[in-house]
Prior knowledge:
Strand content: 35-45%
Largest sheet: 4 strands, antiparallel
Low-confidence stretches: none
CATH topology of the largest domain: Outer Surface Protein A, domain 3
Helix content: 10-25%
Strand order of the largest sheet: 11-12-7-13
Number of domains: 2
Mean pLDDT: 92
Number of strands: 13
Amino acid sequence: MSRVAKMPVQLPAGVQVSTADGQLTVKGAKASVTVNIPASVKIDVNGNVATISADSVKANAMAAGTTRAILNNAVIGVSKGYEKKLTLVGVGYRAATQGKKLNLSLGFSHPIEYPIPDGITVETPSQTEILVKGADKKMVGQVAADIRGFRPPEPYKGKGVRYSTEKVVMKEAKKK
């Protein structure tokens, strides 16, 4: 039995949950998030509490806990939102937003233009900081990982794009 699925999800004021045709829609003050859910999992909303139930023991073990976690992430996303902070480390490394594009200068011979997906906002408070915000936790994490993937931090000088909480383990230089 899934212990995670047994815990109810508290719905803050202004958050609405609805299911139709295998899709879960969570609407809140900031945004709306839609995710697919398995047919064997049912979501019951009573007042400001949502509970998860499954058709069978196998469905409870395999899908109910995941569905509850996805629902909880969606509720937090539409009420508070998610944020990832990236830092550029290196001489000449810069970031700037222009409309729906993020322009990156990461030491290559060409600038990188990353199109920002719908539902995500990217801010650059300074030239070496990038803030990725949105209501969908999965999408915020994926956009941040895509930006980091252009130039991951290297272990000798530490140059590259890194998460603000990331610790880069530095290697020792080659001895002569």
